[in-house]
Structures are given as structure tokens and as C-alpha cells.
């Protein structure tokens, strides 16, 4: 089912049995929106409707939905903004950034707003999240999610994040959930199985340019979390390794997940990359995901 290009890469990361598990369907997960409701109250309401939930211990507000008698997007609780359907690895990226209530945060590729709204939640609706995305259609979804979830500290701007320096702002924290091949989402998107070299080259060009733009507007000692829903080292460790050679960046440990790769294709990468994290469907029950947390030193 995978393109020869992907198979070649996957055989260097996974066993044959693991490759077969990459596309296996997985239970969905929800994040309780504590801006609107307490966890116990929501869990009780959903249980009364016949849902079975299981707390995901390594996320702050995440639950696996084991039994789902209704579509998750069709309950009154969903429409009231009491929860968001979100992969646990995406929740973890926001938790890794650790935004505080007085921070000025940039979410650079923000739509439809899954991570923007979680950043706002962690910040207790205080401070400011500037949420940028290029897509008109996806920004509409972001605005509707922001409103449904009762988020009040987001400034949503449809623009090209490559020109973010024109805002004239310097950010405390930045999340770059980069546009990517999406190879980690093959369990719900079969097109992710046929990506080839050209797709990867297109994505890495944009990812590199977005990272440069982000570092240009991050304050000294500010933190950037870079993440993708891709298994491919070109979009993940190799991208970060190149940055480490050009900027004074400290790699900070992300709590959960498998350590990032420190060599690829016979090439040694920075040993610091072991502090980045990979998430795998067959290990973590999540989409394929990568998280790097970096602190910039300007002086
Ligand atoms: C992985 S998705 C973001 C998902 C989002 N962070 C969330 O959690 O809901 C990547 C996004 O990057 C946006 N994008 C691609 N190129 C961009 C650019 N140059 N400037 C701003 N956004 C861009 C796409 O429109 C897409 O919405």
C-alpha cells in the first residue's frame, strides 16, 4: 500500500510487522475544554449518553473514546464547546510549549485551530495567541472553533506566515505545526501512503522557510515548538539538525514519546536530537508525530 519511496524509508525505521500496523484504525481522542466545563462533569455527561472514556495519563485533559454510540461531532456537548476532537500527540505539542498566562504566543500554521484553542485553554484565556494561516477556508473553521470553545485571547489573521516580521512583534513562544506530507495520518487518510520524493521536497522547502521566519520574531531565550504529523526524518530531525548548525539553539527534552533519531542514512546527526520526540500508532496509539522544543539564544 505504501509508495516505493516511503517503503524504503519505513524499512529503515520500522520492522515489517510495524509497517503493517501504521494504517490500523485507532480510537479517537477528545480534549476536555476546561474553559467551559470540568473534566468529571463532561465525563459523566458523555457516559450517560453511552460513551466509554479512558483518561490518557500522559496528557493533561485528554481521553480516549473507546465506545462511541453517536458521532463525536454531533453531541450537544460538542456543540456547546465542551470538548475538541484531537489526537493526543497534538495535545502534547501544546503542553510542551508551556505557554503562560501573560505570554505573547504565535501559532504560525494555525487552522483549523486545534492547537490554537488548546494554547488558549492552557493560558486560561489570558495573554494573547496570534493565530496565522494562509487558507481562507481553514481560517473560517478556526474562527468557528474559537467561538464554539469560548476562547477570548486569540487574534486570528489570514496571511502568509513567511511575512510575519511585518507584524513588528516579538514573541515569547511560537508553535510551528508545519504543513507536511501527513505521512503519520495514513490510518485516516490513505493518500498519505503514496507520497513521494517530490512531495517531501515541496514540504521541506516551506518548513525551512517558516522556521527561519519564526526564529526572526522569537525573543532571546524564547521557545519554539516545531512539530509535524510525518514519520519522515527529512521533515523532522534533519530539519532541526540543519537549524542547530546555523543558530544558537538549545534542544529541550519533551516529556513523552520515543527519542528522535540521531543518525540517518549513514549520517550522524546532533546527539541533542534524542531530546526530540517521535510518536507512533503501534506504540503510543496516536498518529505518527514529531515534536522538537528549542530555546533560542540571541547573544
Ligand atoms: C498541519 S496544518 C495546521 C493544523 C493546526 N495547527 C491545528 O492544530 O489545527 C498546517 C497548516 O499550515 C497552513 N500553511 C501552509 N503554508 C502556510 C504559510 N506559508 N503561512 C501560513 N500558513 C500556512 C495550511 O493552510 C494548514 O492549515
Can you describe this structure?
By secondary structure, the protein is of the alpha/beta class. It has a single domain, classed as 3-Layer(aba) Sandwich (Rossmann fold). The chain is 31% helix and 24% strand. The strands form three sheets. Strands 5, 6, 7, 8, 9, 10, 11, 14 and 15 form a nine-stranded mixed sheet that branches. A four-stranded antiparallel sheet has the order 2-3-1-4, with helices on one face. The chain is globular, with a radius of gyration of 19 Å. The protein starts with a helix and ends with a strand. The structure holds S-adenosylmethionine. S-adenosylmethionine (SAM) binds at residues 90, 109-115, 132-135, 138, 160-162, 177, 179, 206.
Chart the SSEs and their pairings.
Elements: H1 4-13, H2 16-21, E1 29-32, H3 39-48, E2 52-55, E3 62-67, H4 76-79, E4 83-85, H5 88-97, E5 104-107, H6 114-122, E6 128-133, H7 136-148, E7 154-158, E8 171-177, H8 197-216, E9 218-228, H9 237-244, E10 249-252, E11 258-259, E12 263-264, E13 267-268, E14 277-279, H10 281-284, E15 289-296
Parallel strand pairs: 5-6, 5-8, 6-7, 8-9
Antiparallel strand pairs: 1-3, 1-4, 2-3, 9-15, 10-15, 11-14, 12-13, 14-15
Helix pairs in contact: 5-6
